[in-house]
# Entry
Amino acid sequence: MTKRIFITGIVQGVGFRPCCKKVADDMLLSGTVKNLGGDAEIVIKCDNRVSEEFLRRLVSLLPKEARFDSVDITDCEEFAGDGFSIIKSESDDRLLPEIIPDIATCNKCLTELENKSDRRCLHPFISCAACGPRYSIINKLPYDRENTLMAKFSLCDKCAAEYTSPADRRLHAQTVACKECGPKLFWRGNEASENPLSTAADTVKNGGVIAVKDIGGYHFVCLAKNGAAIEKLRNLKLRERKPFAVMFKDLEQVKEVLDVNNTEAELLCSAARPIVLIEKADEVFEEASMGSRFVGAMLPSNPVQYMLSSELGALIMTSGNISGEPIITDNDTMLNIFENSPYLDGVLYHDRDIITSLDDSIFYVLDGTPHIQRRGRGVAPASIRVDLGDKTIFAAGGDLKACLGFYKNGKAVLSQHFGDLEDEASAEVYKSSAEHISQLFGFKPEITVSDMHPAYYSSKLSKELYGMSCLQVQHHHAHIASVMAEHNLSEVLGFALDGTGYGENGEVWGGEALYCKGKNYSRIAHLKTVKMCGGDELSKNAAESLACYLTAGGQDIPDYIMPNEDAEIVKAAIKNNINCVNSSSCGRLFDAVCCLLGFGDYNYYEGQCAVALENAANVAIKKGIVASNLDLEYNKGELDTVKLVLDILRAKNLGADPHALALGFHTALADGLCKIAMAQNCRKIALSGGTFNNRVLTSILKEKLLARKFEVYMNEKVPSGDGGIALGQLFIAGKE
# Structure
């Protein structure tokens, strides 16, 4: 009797076939295993009982990164051979493959890295069947060496023996290499070096800023506690105030300065090695965090990072790009920056190319649940299970925090984060990635879907790539639909709060209550619509947002908000409808209140004022300051945010504590949303949009909704910001 075992899931790039061979050899079974498309096929001479025992042993031996989505066991033609072997891979366009993200260096490889008697001691590219680059180096499926960027590195005799030895953990490890036959490190600095890694470490130790080529692209690196080096880095990146992530050498070092809960610790140590936003108990890494109450903590994910952090301790490890541009992956571009910038002191690079650029993924933990804030290395392109029928769908996402997606056969595959597509280089990376993912997974869309904004590049690209008209989806509907897709919901009341989205009436939406059922939605309530002027500058200038709110309320604009002549220009522009939009944006509301309370008047990076206002509310919570009693009135489908702003102004003028008012504002907004919920019959509430990265607002709102017996759902597998709307677009298109 011979059985065919067909397994779908994450079964390539995790040492699956070598594990199969080990189990079969231990059980003295004959047969074969091969990659089939992105899945795996095992043919084994045995009966039902033995096949079940084989699978039990196989599951116990596999690394945790492996995943079985389905296992199908059938009888097949009798196997005539003896022994068990790994045979040549085959393609199958009918199947949707599962491509594993890049995996952090495993503990066994780290032990070898530190072992002076091991031939791979201090090898910068050490890896095995269970770890190393995957998505960033694969050209096409199946996942075999000849289909990756490792193909150009011919194996030496010792590595070839490991690659073919059934007893070796590098059996069929596609990234296997050593110092003799693998990629090489190089250094470009003011002086030549025979030891690139040592010279790079010395440069950082002496206060320098260097670029390091990693798995998914370059990082800029300096000491995390060297203020002068950090200032130099800010000048290099043109990143004046946005916080930087900090890489610690191990979890113990993180725990020395941060209170890390169990979920955060698991995320830090996971194979994805993401950045995890951890709240500070004390003032630590102030130059890096720039006033944020969080440290973006991360652990090393590859051998070079391990060796640098082991020698140097905590490091700033930030994406190697100029702010607003995509992460740099090619050596020539970075070397050119070195030659022309006074702020970069050297480049540590290697000769393995990068096919897919990947920023670091970002997570945070709320109420014990991990939430992703940016999809990147270690996460993309892992699929999300969702049943949207039998059509193949392409979703263009949006232009801000861009992320595209495909759907086929019960799986949604979402790309990595691309940044904002108004940058030409980011748009080019988006386009090339769409083509690469389409080819890699064998996607041939029957439906394309995009945001309804008439000027979005992502929408235009859909037509350019696939030559068909797009289904257009309203931005905030897609936000709520992304939560529905994640949690398999058919009907919800959704609160979509963010900075901006194109509304069906041509206005700027951003504070929306939507009733969603299946593919349909209705806008049942929203934040008060305010006429706002200023064009693109409005999203940065919080003082201008406040001036627009005060003007809408018939209030004079105090000169401490802006000079009288500027205030007159704002009022005239609004009166004469010059460069104005009607807006219900929650983002602009946060900007206005932040400016009014004196916590910030300009967004030097997106969301800076909203973060400052949240931090102020958190100070009140930590210090036990009672929230100011503020009321957000709800009438005829509108929450009266203009009256709320005027009430805050009056309270401030009467001497109320700004921190109490900041907390009162968050509480009033949560109460206002609860008023909307209580007026509806739907008990399932979905929260989405970038505003829900605000942990103070989200925690207050969730507590109030749960106390009223609502069920509350949020994004977990995709960002609540615009990086998640591609999933919502897929959901809506799949329901057509």
Q: What stands out?
A: The longest strand covers residues 491-502. The chain has 22 helices and 30 strands. The longest helix spans residues 658-678. The chain has four domains: 2-86, 198-299+316-349, 362-486+720-734, 527-714.
